Amino acid sequence: MTRRKQEAERTRETILDAAEATFLEQGVSRTTLAHIAAAAGVTRGAIYWHFEDKEALFDALLERVRIPIDEIVDHADDGTQASPMESVRAIAQSALTRICDDRQLQRVATIVFHRCEKLEDRHPRIGTITRLSRHAQDRVEAIFEQARDQGQLRADLSPTTACRQLHSFLIGACFDWLQDTTQYSLADERDSMVETLMRGLAA
After folding, report:
1. For 112-119, which contacts have Cβ atoms below 8 Å and span 24 or more sequence positions?
2. What is the CATH number of the domain that holds 45?
3. What are the contacts of 2-8 at 24+ separation with CB within 8 A?
4. Residue 56 lies in a domain
5. How far apart are CA 120 and CA 122, in angstroms?
6. 85 and 146 co-located in one domain
7. Which domain holds residue 23?
8. Helices (H) and strands (E) in the chain, counts
9. What DSSP character marks residue 66?
10. What is the 8-class DSSP label of residue 201?
11. Is residue 26 located within the same domain as residue 70?
12. Local confidence pLDDT in tens for the 203 residues of the chain
C-alpha cells in the first residue's frame, strides 16, 4: 500500500471513529456531518471524499463491526458438541460473550438499538449487526431439526419457530443490557439467562 493510500485509510478510520463517538453521544438524527468533521479534526470535504453522505458513513460504521454469528454457528455445529441442543446452548453463550467482551461492538450495537431515531429506525440495513445470515439461519434450523428428530425439542415448536425464538432471545438480551450496562453484569448472568432459554426450548 502506498503512503498516500495509507494516509487515506487512516483518515477514513478517524472519520468512522468520530462518527461512532458522536452518534453514541448525540444520536444519529441529531448528528450532522459538520459535527463529525469537528470531532475528527477534518473538513467536511474530507468526509465527502470518503463517503457520499451520512447514510453511507453509517453503512460503513455497521460494516466495521458485527456479531460474527456465522463463525459462532459453524463452530458450535462442528461435531464437538454432545447433542444438537448443546450446540444451541453454545451459540447463545458465544454470542452473548462476544457482546460482553467487544467494546466497539457494544458501542455500535448501542447506536443501532438506542441512538437511531425517526427515519433511521427504518434504515434498510439497520439490522446488519444482529440479523442472522441465510447461512446461519439454515444451519441453526438444521440443528433444531436434528433436535426434533432426536426428541430433544419441545413438541409444539417447529425448527423455524425455535430458530426465531433463539434470535429474539439474543436481540432482547443485547437490547436490554445495552440500555445501561451498569445495571447488571451480563457476563455474570449470561449462563443463567441461557439456561432459561434452553428450558423453554427443550422437550
Report:
1. 112/62, 113/174, 113/175, 113/178, 113/179, 114/175, 114/178, 114/179, 115/23, 115/24, 115/26, 115/27, 115/28, 116/27, 116/28, 116/29, 117/27, 117/28, 117/29, 117/30, 118/29, 119/29
2. 1.10.10.60
3. 8/50
4. no
5. 5
6. yes
7. 1-51
8. 10, 0
9. -
10. H
11. no
12. 688 888 889 999 999 999 999 999 999 989 999 999 999 999 999 999 999 999 899 888 888 887 778 888 888 888 888 899 999 999 999 999 999 999 998 998 899 888 887 544 455 555 556 567 788 889 999 999 999 999 999 999 999 999 999 999 998 999 999 999 999 999 999 999 999 999 999 99
On whether both 135 and 37 belong to a single domain, the answer is: no
Q: Are residues 163 and 95 located together in one domain of the fold?
A: yes
Instruction: For residues 114 and 82, state if they share a domain.
Output: yes
Q: Is the pTM of this model over 0.85?
A: no
